[in-house]
Design a protein that fits this description.
By secondary structure, the chain is an alpha/beta fold. The protein has 2 domains: 62 residues, 2,3-Dihydroxybiphenyl 1,2-Dioxygenase, domain 1 (Roll); 72 residues, Signal recognition particle alu RNA binding heterodimer, srp9/1 (2-Layer Sandwich), CATH 3.30.720. Helices cover 19% and strands 40% of the residues. It is built from 3 helices and 8 strands, in the order E-H-E-E-E-H-E-H-E-E-E. The strands form 2 sheets. It has a 4-stranded mixed sheet, covered by helices on one side. The protein is globular. The mean pLDDT is 93. It holds the Pfam family Glyoxalase_4. One of its GO terms (molecular function) is methylmalonyl-CoA epimerase activity.
Length: 135
Amino acid sequence: MAEFTFHHGGVSVPSLDEAIDWYGRVLGFELEKRFYIEAARSHTAMVRKGPLRFEIFEVEGAAPLPEERRMPPTDVKTHGNKHVAFRVDSLDDFLTEMEEKGADVAFVVREKFGRGCFLRDCAGNLIEFVEEPVS
């Protein structure tokens, strides 16, 4: 079996500058590089936090994110990529920090099967944060 590791997730946004600011201010990502993808007509940036990366696309003439893609229960009803998820040590501590930063908390899960939450970035894209139980 070929070996591989995770490299990055990607999101499309209406404003690259606003997204670079949001990912930095709210989640602590730093700008790694900016570039233009001619074939996609996309002003693009790669942001990084340690080994984690996000590729952010501002595509000329792109359609806005449909409303049903902004909530996890309705988003899963459309085929395709859904979100990326990151592990947090404490959901409650993470939520407190995100609320202090004014982040848009879309959905919180506190169930027997697990605890986590979804944030919406500045363009409405969903990002999941999961608290893994201590074994």
